[in-house]
Design a protein that fits this description.
This is Biotin-carboxy-carrier-protein. By secondary structure, this protein is of the alpha+beta class. It folds into 2 domains: 14-99, OB fold (Dihydrolipoamide Acetyltransferase, E2P) (Beta Barrel); 103-211, Beta Barrel (OB fold (Dihydrolipoamide Acetyltransferase, E2P)), CATH 2.40.50.100. 21% of the residues lie in helices and 38% in strands. The chain is built from 4 helices and 16 strands. It has helices at 4-13, 102-113, 129-137, 198-211, and strands spanning 16-22, 27-31, 39-40, 54-60, 63-68, 73-78, 86-87, 92-99, 115-118, 123-127, 144-145, 150-156, 159-164, 170-175, 182-183, 188-193. The strands form 4 sheets. The protein has a 4-stranded antiparallel β-sheet, with no helix packed on it. A 4-stranded antiparallel β-sheet has the order 5-4-2-7, with no helix packed on it. Strands 9-16-14-11 form a 4-stranded antiparallel β-sheet, with helices on one face. Helix 2 runs antiparallel to helix 4.
Length: 216
């Protein structure tokens, strides 16, 4: 079983992730008034309707395209040497240091503690009606899975096919996909917890809730 103390200590020692913001397409780069050490915000609002802080502008065929911060973080590097130059798509422009939130730490721990059943190919996925009904009526812990169980419907190219779960027996602890959204191959669909470890996993999450300090 996962050593929660060791993992939490490792995350606390490096409580952030670095986001490399690259040019989404070719164009001439003009940086906004930003510098190393500035704290910028990502998308805001109830529906993320407010765009993130402007980091740079790419001009392509006299058409300016903004490059904005995807999340809140501190700017650790700006490639100012590219100012005024024509850059290719994928060229790194800014590095943003994003401090992990409590929810993100919880997600990291769960993805290490649970068995992740992943999408075999890019498609839309649905739970079978029986499993979906149980989850909507109660919670994910109400659905017990076993190896070989028919659990999903995979929809691709307007065709639907059943998909069996393969993995250890247990209960569905997390559902990672959304209805009517394509999931890439290899993306986790569900996280399964063996019944005998359910209480331990819940205690781990409670510890994160009480020990992790949200960044200001």
């Amino acid at each position: 079983m996962l050593d929660i103390s060791k993992l939490l200590d490792a995350i606390k020692a490096s409580p952030y992730r670095e986001i490399v913001i690259a040019a989404p397409h070719t164009g001439r780069i003009t940086f906004a008034d930003i510098k190393q050490g500035d704290v910028v915000l990502g998308r805001q609002g109830q529906w993320k309707e407010k765009p993130g802080v402007l980091l740079a502008t790419l001009e392509r065929e006299h058409n300016p395209k903004p490059v904005r911060a995807p999340e809140k973080g501190e700017i650790s590097l700006v490639h100012k040497n590219l100012e005024g130059q024509y850059v290719e798509a994928g060229t790194p422009l800014v590095v943003l240091r994003h401090m992990l939130t409590r929810d993100e730490v919880q997600r990291i721990i769960l993805q290490k503690a649970l068995y992740l059943f992943r999408a075999p190919e890019r498609a839309k996925y649905y739970l079978t009606p029986e499993a979906d009904k149980k989850i909507r009526a109660a919670d994910t812990y109400s659905v017990t899975v076993r190896d070989g169980m028919e659990l999903f419907i995979m929809s691709r190219m307007k065709r639907e096919a059943p998909l069996n779960y393969t993995g250890p027996d247990g209960v569905i602890y997390e559902v990672y996909f959304k209805y009517n959204e394509n999931m890439d191959a290899g993306s986790p669909l569900i996280g399964v917890c063996p019944k005998g470890q359910l209480q331990l996993v819940q205690e781990m999450i409670m510890r994160v809730q009480t020990e992790w300090t949200e960044p200001s």
